[in-house]
Amino acid sequence: MLSAVVVAPASAAELPLGPASLDERRTARELAPGLRWTRIARGEGGSRWRVHVLSVDRAGGAKVVSLLSNGRVRGRERLSRIARRAGALAAVNGGFFASRGLTDGDPVGALALRGRLVSESVDGRPALLVPRDPARAPRIARLRFRGRVRIGGRRRALDGVNRAAGLIPGCGGRGGDRPTERPSSTLLCRDRSELVLMTRDFAARTPRRRGATELVVRDGRVTALRRGGRSRIPAGGFVLTGTGGAARYLRAASPGDPEPAVSARLRRGRTPVGVAGLGALVSGDPLLVSGGRPRVRGRGTPAPRTLAGVRRDGTLLLVTIDGRTSRSAGATLREAARVMRSLGARQALALDGGGSTTMTVGRRVVNTPSDGRQRSIGDALGLLP
């Protein structure tokens, strides 16, 4: 880690938080070529904010990757452990996640890991896409999921990826989700009839599900037909799990049958998104900045925020704003949008915030989580050498 430190004058593009008369101090450190960490302390006394900014010029060589807690969907873990295991130079918490029962740790919305789709999108919600190729700029886009399964001559829609069938974190699905088919960061919706693809990114086994039927596939063949869940997910294979009508659909297959044809794709409008070419893909909400302009309506309340944005030149910005502490007041979503625009973002979205807001540099947690300690989270964005 390089040790050069630059102290920026208070007049350099001050953050739009509080009165313009507040003092602002910035300290910047180069962590690696193209990777800079800037600490911003704004104000004293009753009005104060603490902001951390990671700016990533990917031409310098730093890799941006999605990271899963425990290396899998099931369960949660503190950011410092996720980052340490990956050998990250720096990291921030990722998208929203479910935190109870069979859905504990499940991402809310699209997530891709090492070029593999780990979780389907909550249709219409924005996501950050970072190509592996450093010559291609990151972007923020609204994504939709389309999945199909064909067993013999019979076809059926695929509802999701790597989650318990019938339980939809964040809602936003299709075909009878209750209580709503509209996206929601806080709701867990239910559907009595669902077909879900499960891979080893989820866990070693599928969850126990009364009434579920599961088709285990390996080496191009159906190897088992099971009921009730708890199927071992084969390395290099997958399991199709179904409830309701989807369970009856799967029961028409038999061990020894050819592998079902499975399609699980993301689209941006009518354009397919090539997940294999992405180093990182994580969902957030809401879209804060588009075309260089704030897109947030309503003020909301100040809170800790984790934000991601892209400058015109392709520089990626990962930002935390501390809140609910004596040292930092937090930001409303409108303020967060203005902060990202002041940092040069042409596009920006909010990642998970509140007690999840955390940033690590090396082995240190550099911000102040509002819970007084790190919260266990489902996924993260890491910067690797």
Number of helices: 3
* Percent range of helical residues: under 10%
Radius of gyration: 22 Å
- How much of the sequence lies in strands comes to 35-45%
The chain-level structural class is mainly beta
Number of domains: 2
Largest sheet composition: 9 strands, antiparallel
Given as residue ranges, the uncertain stretches (5+ residues, pLDDT < 50) are: 7-11
Strand order of the largest sheet: 1-2-3-4-26-25-27-23-24
Structure summary:
The chain is mainly beta.
Description of the molecule:
This protein is mainly beta. The protein has 2 domains: 24-99 and 284-384, no CATH class; 153-259, no CATH class. Helix content is 6%, strand content 43%. The chain has helices spanning 79-86, 245-250, 333-342, and strands at 5-8, 24-32, 35-42, 49-56, 63-68, 90-93, 111-113, 116-119, 126-131, 139-142, 144-151, 154-157, 160-161, 167-171, 183-190, 195-198, 208-218, 221-229, 238-242, 261-268, 271-273, 278-283, 287-290, 293-294, 305-311, 316-321, 345-350, 359-361, 364-365, 379-384. Strands 1-2-3-4-26-25-27-23-24 form a 9-stranded antiparallel β-sheet, with helices on one face. A hairpin with a 7-residue loop joins strand 9 and strand 10 (139-142). The chain starts with a strand and ends with a strand. Mean pLDDT is 93; it is low at 7-11.
